## 1
Amino acid sequence: MKFFPKKGYTVHNIPAQPSSQVEKENKDFNGIIDTFPLLAQAFDTKRPFEVKRIWIQDNEFYVEYQNARGELGQILIEKNNDKYQAKGHFIASESGWELIKGEGELVSAKAALYEKDAKGQWIRKN
């Protein structure tokens, strides 16, 4: 999928949680999907790009993308008072993810991981 903002994505296969938690994850997920192209501009990402994975932990979101050249990157996005801000830009290197601009730590193993299935639906993987 080439990435352009679209409304109405929903997160599927979320483990049993209170409905308010599911609603919060869907709202956060849609906020990231809708604002990622604008946030990615802060780090001069090469376009076009495709979002491959999203990790969510608390108010931090790691959005992994692949550009037209096949290069992988991650943008760390922080949510504060319903506003999203790009904090750090990582690129894939031989030794793992390398922070090249901004600030931030690597994604935690505790973060919820989402990937697209064959039908283009976002599925929680852990």
## 2
Amino acid sequence: MKAYDLSITAAGSAGAATGTATMAVQAGQLVGVLMQYTSAPATTDVTVSEALNGVSRTVLTQSNNATAKSFAPTVPATDATGAAILSAYQPEVLYGGVVTVSVAQANAGTIVNVRLLVED
């Protein structure tokens, strides 16, 4: 298992500051995400996304939050035809691209520290 740590610093006016941090990650299952806020208003939005070969997708979004949380992101499981299997979930998969953590509606300064746990 590999841990990736990102610290996001926002710039701008109070309640409207934004910031991003990026990091290349290995391919594997995203088994955990920990968000620890350092100085953020309750309006803070955090988005975790991954981009690879020109394709970008959102992995996790937290809106209007400033409380430390941990997540185990999952997606609906599918069968061989791509149909969803009811009430079945599997860990989110990262494809070995670049992960971006974006912050919006925050205050200026270091806003949030994010740790991603990826299992290969």
## 3
Amino acid sequence: MAAHVSTVSSSVRATNRCRSHRGGATWCSFNVYSSTGAFNTSGNNVVNATLVQSPLSIGSLFKKGNYQQGILIRNNNTWGPLVSGSYNFALSNGKTSGWGSDNSANSNNANIRCTDGISYLRSQYYYSDASLVSRQRNWQWAKFKAGGRTYRVPTYAEFKDITDNCDFGFGIMYGDGATETQTTFTDAEGYMDQNGSTTSSSLGVRGVLVYNARDARQIFFSMGKFGQGRRTMFNLQGLTAGALRYGDVTNPLDPTETNKNNNYRPIPYNLGHQPGSLYWIRGIKYDHVHNENDVAVGAWDINYFSFNFSEYTNNNYRDALPIKLVVD
């Protein structure tokens, strides 16, 4: 039987003051389903968005800077965990598309693009073009307008604030329509919002409830059906980029894959199946700026296996991830 957390209602306020202290960010209860924003719009520009109607819904998965080509969660029915091939994803703009090439900036518009095809981590060409470095360091998600209110993607500091000052519950969440806990994992983690408007279901979904124990304010981060909220840019172990896979480490834990015995040890053996999700942060956060050992944080990491809620410092600039918002 699955471990269960709590229930939430789809009729909750659009925003939830899940603050660690007075003056903290006001978090939006609902993730982004679609947007009409032009490709690569950034900074203080405002784009129109549609939000999901249930806190259980993970929304759509978006590549960096691509507002109109959100990958709908219903694609999980066809291309679920560790399934890859000739993708034809249903998108939030009503069209369908393939994943796109590794150099997504130069991909045909028929494929899903991201803002650029360069790495924001250490690489042999990282410092060779000052304009590219500046573009990566300064780019931010635009603001979103929905229901008469303006939102924005949370900053590194706002994620760090709730990480340091709030408590967490990892498990199965239920919402309106649930009258009892489910007894199979298929039903307990099977909630799926097909079109961004589902408000009632008897099924649950994996995620983490972040709450302030002093005043009971809370916000839920959904991991979506199957508990994997990430379509990764990496080609891993026979899977092509675009696969629904949270982890980006190969089983052997060795780049040369010389240690084959790791394949049969418990943690490496199951790495590809581990549940978790990444969420976009507004802009890249750097430590030791202008140092060749810069560490870049491009997303927030929710590791359901290790109960970790912290910055993600690996290379994910061409991933497709969900978007949680805060009030601007």
## 4
Amino acid sequence: MMSLFITLIISFIVLLILVKRLNFLRIGGIPTILDGLFFGSIFFILLPIIYSFLVGEIEITNIPEFSPHRDSDLLIYCLLSILFFGVLTLTPKNNRITKNSEDFIDQRIQGLFILILVLYVLSILLTFFASGKLSGNSHWYRGNAQVFEKGAIYVLLGQLHNVGRVAIPGLCIYFQLKYLQKDKIFKPHFFLAFVIIVLELFMAGNRIVILFFAFSFLIPFFLFKRFKILISMALISLPMMVLAEIWPMARGLMFTEKVTVERVAEVISIAYEKGQSADNDSDLFLILTEGSNIAALKFIKDKYPKNKSFSYGETLILKSFGALIPKSIWPNKPDGVGHEAGEAAIGGVSLILNVTILGDAWANFGWFGIIYIGMILILINKLIPTRYLEFISPIFFMTSIAAWRFDFSFYFITIYILIFYLSIIKVPLVKYYSNKMAFKLFN
């Protein structure tokens, strides 16, 4: 009973901070890296915790289940971390307003958005065709991994793809907020979401981008009370949600044979029929919030330092700074702690479970881990050049949300790729064509 009482008290305080931050965004506030960290902690940690009181426990195969009553130490760790992240959003440097001007979206931002979009499409196409998955006798995940082993250029392409699928929804939130403030709608948002989701599902095999774009629509339209649009989109998206639910099975079968249109239709049909006929005990709420990850987090919390010494920066620092270095050059590059939870769940199989940022923080520094993360993100937020603030902050907002699904090193990957973007856009020919394409998209 005490666990529930503490959860409700902290949840109420967190809700007050959340409302304050949402109101700030509505009046023109810039979504930041700290806001994304806070929002992500609510969605991926707090909501599953609250839900666990209803269902009793949350589990993953072969890993001890999480119980909010029994695992009070983990519960307190999670709740205080979320509260700490919420307090960080209230710092002065995190409260900057967008500039008001007739040209309400800076041309530089428009051009950079086009560059990111073009590089994203090129990177996903090149890595997909280089994987040889179309020829068959392949696997969606192993095929991707084998491409990155070919050399540094493919690692760069892979990271352009990873950052692009996060940066584009992040900038769409920013554009949609700016348009809604002028009582307009950023219509390309809908088309881009559809195209990128299709590319991600088929070529990369990933569903997570659906969630990123869901945030990109929900936040601005909810803030400006465009509920009819949200309801219409929810109804239109129902087939996409069905496809997303059966996609793990479909992608596993997709590339075992040569890919044709008929093959794709056949695989989706098989996956749907098996999903309908099987005893489906999957929990939709835990699927949406990826709430089962809290059981993987419990595994790490129980293991460190009781059974294994803290890593002291191996994955939070070393892996982050060497994020773009392929294993062919750095064979002993840290894998992260997710593989330890994956090995416990399914021994003998290369599986990485998401232990969330909190798992990464704990395995490295214990309680100090969340303070380290907060300090690093405050520093990143402070160091963003003012002239790039409105462009970079929304990207980091979505990066922070995505990092709950990936790991802490994704922040540094984003920094490296942003430096690459800002260097490329200075090339006169690139700048000219990016601005030319931007004019057609935004006018």
